[in-house]
Write the structure tokens for this entry.
Amino acid sequence: CNLECEFCPQHLSPKQIPKDKMGLKRFEDMCIQINEFSTKPNLIRFCGIGDSLTNKTFVEMLKIANQYQIGERMQLITNGLLLPHHNCLELINFLDQIVISIEGLSDDDYKEFANRKINFDAHVQKLKELCSVRDRRARFNIKIHSAAVKTEERLHRFNELFSFADEIFVE
């Protein structure tokens, strides 16, 4: 992952978490095996420990998953920091839903909770641009943990900042 959130197992016990990226051949083999099921899974969710977007072959994996039609719907859970790259338009048309986990409401929040310096305003602007793409397949859901919006003022700021998304929620 490109963040080091205090609550994440990757941060709490980094030596115990595998860092290898899945290769395309292994992923295609998994897609073939999924197609052997008697019924197609309702949802294929790309998430876990780390961010799928750190895998440079992720868009290729989505192409393979779509080619094999391995699930009724495909969802990505990400921190969204790596979304705006050259393959992004392709990416948002291979997925049905992109859930973006927001780790704070400012540069300082990210430094405190995710142990990374980011340009929060630029991050919000890039997400806004992605959500404004017309005729996209993916719906954008933006979520934040309740610990990050403990006051009414912060909750209002979250709602105001991300009102452009298809759905926002506090978990």
Summary: The chain has a mean pLDDT of 88.
